[in-house]
Design goal:
elongated, mainly alpha, single chain
Length: about 210
Amino acid sequence: MISILERLLGRDVAKVATDFYRGVPKWVVVWREEVSQLRVPPALLVAGLATGQHLIARHRAVRPASAVVAAVVSLASGWLLAGSVQEFRRQRTSVNPVDVAGARSLVIRGPNRLTRNPMYVGMAGLLIANAILRRSAVAVLPAAAFVLAIDRSQIRVEEDALAAEFGDEFERYCRSVPRWLDRRSVTWSTPSTNTSRRPVQYVQSSRTT
């Protein structure tokens, strides 16, 4: 292959082309690593997806029934969001999703008894409520995209930081409370943790599903 390039392009040009080709895989790996570290703030992501929902379903009329159901979902989602933020502030720990290393305590009370990520569940719920309001099944796709994006990019980073900080206490919490929502969410039990080392509350995320 190199000899063919040398005949067609000349020795110097062929050498430059060969070196560039060999360097491409390394460049791609570095680029992928840099991109993986870029995370869009969840609130900004929700705003963008909600705009997409509006464009998708802008011709769909709102009906009283859809408005009632959407209101119920919105209220539940708002409670998850507001209740979680309130609990985080009560425990004086970070709610900044970008500063994943800023966790000072492991919050397990309030909405965090139902899900390890009540803020993200609440945001997804608001997107679902918007789709219900517009009576559009297609408008549910942005909500699904939000869950997938947050689960893959944000939560995994957070869970690594929490596991490193809280160790076995975090692992026990993960076994008791789901990352999103499942049957464990209706048990209303506070996970038992070893508090001899420090007070335990919870910050977002998980290691296991």
